[in-house]
Design goal:
Strand content: under 5%
Number of strands: 0
Order of helices and strands: HHHHHH
Number of helices: 6
Structural class: mainly alpha
Largest sheet: none
Radius of gyration: 22 Å
Helix content: over 70%
Shape: flat
Length: 141
Amino acid sequence: MNLLFKLAAAALLHALFFACYPDTGPFGNYYLGISLLVWAGFLAFVSTGARLVRFFSGAAGALISLAAFAVMGLALAATMPQADKVSVLEKLQAGKYPDRSDLDRGLERFGIDLDKELKHGEKELRKQAAEAVQNAQKELK
């Protein structure tokens, strides 16, 4: 994996955690930025080492990269601030997984209104279906 792909994957992992567990409190946005910067530096360091190891064994280099992402996910789950003072890792261990309302609130932080997007998609699908029915009726006549 090249470094840009790894950085994009790290940003996606952070976004997924923040979308699924949106109750980060007042310092959540700061945590997101600082954590992403720290992990970007770590990935740049590990990427160099993985590239050297990949020179000898391609599978070992990929394993190092995957291990770095596993550590990142574990660290995010353990350290991400939550308003109720219970870490995401403890919530996952207790079986408290995010539900639809958590995901909706989390996506709103990124400017995505899932219900609005679904309604717009439904309206567009109905329009295309109506056009297809009209075209089929014209061909049958």
